[in-house]
Amino acid sequence: MGRGILIVVLGVSLITTFLILKLNANSKEGLKATVDYYELTQARIISNSGVEVYLEKLRRNKSLSGKFTGNSLMDGSYDIAISGPDSLITVDAMGHFGNTNHPVIVTARRRKMKMPSVNSALYISSNNISLNLNGNVDIDGNDHLMNGSPGMALPLPGIGVDTPSDSAFVINNIKSKLTEDIKGFGGAPSVYTIDDNVDWMALTEDFIFSADTVLSTGTYSNGSSFGTITEPIITYANGDVDFTDATGYGVMVVNGNINMSGNFKYYGIVIVYGQSSIRCNTIGNNGIYGGCVLVGEEVSVESQGNSKFYYSSEAINLGKLKLKSSRFEILTWWE
Fold it and tell me: How many domains does the chain have?
């Protein structure tokens, strides 16, 4: 009897020991599975976050490419490789956390920069226009190359405005000696009402988002360059700016007043806008080759010296071909 009880007790003991060992093994396996899943999740979050970080860097630095390794994030790290043309950018990320790696490959393309179609050499959209044109101001809607020689595109008005009353006001306030200096479509003085449907305020938002250079209020003088003929850029000036003997190519957006003096030259489109009043002053041998747009509740244009506002399809097309947007279209996202 006693021997039987001993055998039963030993049997139960062995079974209990086996179950405990099995439970411990299962517990360790469960813990390992939990840790592995956690590490995989963290590595995945890190690699996806790395892609987002470098897409933002690509937005700000449009020529960014190559390999960028050892980026620390969330107690882990990630490596990035960027390659391809703007029409097919590849961002290859590898996130690392603990002993786990997680790859992400994203392809994207830059959206094309939407360039506005200018309707005149100088377009003024305002409820209150003020003109004080002096010197040898030359506003010409006939097409020009960037070197000043005649172009091949059809002529536009020299000055475009929104209403017949604005057109009459401009013509009546042009000094007689300057009448022949406003040339373009229809002959001098070339001042016409324009059926303009462009939402210039909304359009400027896209340019501001994609700006390559952001300027604050101040004076930008000799040696300042805002793009070149081979690499035109988008420039955004947030405040009143004064350009003296500087140059630029592409698109410039000014939220404030603009003063141009000395030998300042710009090739492309200049958009000056404001919620209330804006002032455009030109002094010296300065010029805008392309198109100039002034949009505000009140617009004042003052000129002295040899100021030029020339329509140039060549300067505008340069921007259409080479300016880059900062907005992306994601084509694929693999992980």
Answer: 2
